[in-house]
Each structure stands twice: as C-alpha cells, then as structure tokens.
Amino acid sequence: MGNELDVTDLQQQIPPKPTVLKKLSQRHDAPGLRRISAHLGLLVPTGAAVLAAPGGWWLLPAVVHGIIMVFLFAPLHETVHRTAFKSGWMNRWVGDLAGFLLILPPRWFAAFHFAHHRFTQDPARDPELASPKPTTLLGYVWVVSGIEYWQRTIRGLIRRAFGIAPDTFLDDRLRARAILEARVYLALYAALAIGSAALGTDLVLKLWVVPALLGQPFLRLYLLSEHWGCPSVKDMWANTRSTVSIAPVRWLAWNMPHHAEHHANPAIPFHALPAYSQLMKGARVNEERGYAPFHASRITDLSAGRAGPI
Predict the structure, then answer these.
(1) d(CA 178, CA 231)
(2) pLDDT tens-digit profile of 197-246?
(3) Are 57 and 83 in contact (CB under 8 A)?
C-alpha cells in the first residue's frame, strides 16, 4: 500500500545488500502523514467520549484517550530520527506537537536519544541508564506508575529553563538550544494554566493532564521491554529486545516493537521496519513473545532478587 514495502519484493536478496538497505531507508511523506493523521484522529472520538461521560465516569474513556496520547511518543521518536517524513518541516512540527504534549522537548530529547543509540546498555554512558531499572517489586510499581517519569521529566525541564543543563550528552550549542527550548515550553505551559484558570475551564485537565497521567503506565510497560535485562555489549542485536506483538500495538507504537531492528539500522523508517525484520530473521538475540510474558518473567525475577538495574 502506498510507499510501504512488501518483503516479497526483497526476499531473494538476503542478507540485505547495500541497494536493498538503500531502498528500505528511503523516506516518504505519505506513510507518515497517513499514520499521524489516523493517530491524532483517534483522539477525537476518545476526547468526545471523555466530555460526554456523566459524573466521574469520564475517567474510563480518559484511560483510552490517555493511552493513545502518550503513544505519541512513537512519532516523536521517529521525527527525532528524521524518518517519519521526508520533509524536514513535517518532522519538526510533528515532533514539537508530540514533545509538547509529553513534556519531552524534541531538541533535548534528540541529544539524549542519540547518546542512547551510541552507548546502548553502557552503564557509564547510556543516558537511559541514568535512571536504573527497578530491582525490587516496589521499585517496579514506582516506575510503571509513571510518577517517576513525570518527576524526572518536569524537574529536568524546570532546571534547563533556569539554565541548569549538566547533561554530558549536550555540547555548548545543544545546551543553549535545550535551555531556550525549555524556556519556551515552560512559558507555553504557564500560559495554558493561567488561561484555563481565567476562563474557569477544566478542558486542559480532562483532555490532556489527567489522561496523560492515566495513560503513562502503559507506555512505561511498553518501553521497559526494549532493553531491560539485555547484556551490556556493543552488538545491537544483543543489547536490544524486539517483542512479537499484536497488530494494534505495532500500529500504535509505529512498528517500534521491532526494536532490535531499529537499533541495528536506525535509518530505516517505521513503515519499512516490518520488511527489514523479515529479512533479518534469526539475527535477533533477545526476542519476547509478547509484553505480558516479558513482564511476568521480570516480576518473577524481581521476586527472586535476580533482576538487575540495566
């Protein structure tokens, strides 16, 4: 369909030749436009359900609304790699929208994320490991709740807005951009809060703040599967886990359950990852047959004191 690749076109070219990888790495606007339009479009009926629900029942559709919203992390991630769209301005605008909703400014996140790609599972240099994985059941609940994420993210944003940006993955130029970006975002959040109070409306709370809080645990469960428990080695096929999942999850996550494939070749756009995954069958070292089995095994390890901080 459209620009999406069918693996049958490439099956006779295993292992992938440079020409095959070049074809897989081609960027297009159409697949990203279709996906972001549908992703944002889903927020319309869920948002309408939140507003239409009587009394406290609005919290039920708010969970669904929140899950769809927090998974805008997927297009944020893709735009940071500049692979969501061929057009640079589309990557920037979608990245800013998603980053704003998630309180995750894309310029700072890009520097953070690229350092993660360079030093995946390196305890000394991977910034994702600055917040270690849980080693107790209580720590697991704390991380999955999303509260740890919001505290860390909001504290970092405020510190950067005040000019405090000690992150080692920021050089002087990136640090200046991150500080300016944080100040702009913080000013916009303040304007929204003041405007909502002045107008006496709870729309921001009902359609954004509360759903984001309710949806964040589902994103935490998804993200924990990507590297937790993988070895501290340089081989991207070994230090990253792919998860076999159902179509709705793959769709909502923009094919990022193919995560080992993404780390092995981050230039490949989301819409070509399934084809690349098919080509590289057998290359995965860490593969999980679903998110429920992964977390069940992690909870078992935590209970037995076997779960490590990476």
Answers:
(1) 31
(2) 999 999 999 999 999 999 999 999 999 999 999 999 999 999 999 999 99
(3) no
Asked if omega into 15 is within 30° of 0 (cis), the reply is: yes
Q: Which residues contact 268 (CB under 8 A, 6 or more apart)?
A: 21, 24, 25, 83, 261, 262, 276
- 310/239 Cα distance (integer angstroms): 10
Q: Phi first, then psi: give them for residue 230, nearest 5 degrees.
A: -85, 155
Residue in this structure with the two tokens 């951009």, named with its chain if needed: 177
Q: Which residues are within 8 A (CB) of 123 and not within 5 positions of it... i.e. 6 or more apart?
A: 129, 232, 310
CA 46/CA 274 separation, integer angstroms: 28
The candidate with the shortest Cα–Cα distance to 96, out of 86, 88, 106, is: 106
* Integer angstrom CA distances of residue 150 from 4, 54, 89, 186: 35, 29, 28, 14
- Please give the Cα distance from 60 to 288 (Å, whole number): 30
Half-sphere exposure for 275 (CA within 13 Å, toward CB): 24
Q: Which residues touch 200 (CB under 8 Å, ≥6 apart)?
A: none
- DSSP letter for each residue of 94-154: HHHHHHHHHT--HHHHHHHHHHHHHTTT-TTT-GGGGSPPP-SHHHHHHHHHSHHHHHHHH
pTM as predicted: 0.93
24 CB burial (10 A radius; 0-12, 13-18, 19+): buried
Cα separation of 64 and 71, whole Å?
A: 11
User: Tens of pLDDT along 75-90?
Assistant: 999 999 999 999 999 9
Distance (Å, whole) CA 98 – CA 105: 9
| 59/53 Cα distance (integer angstroms) | 8
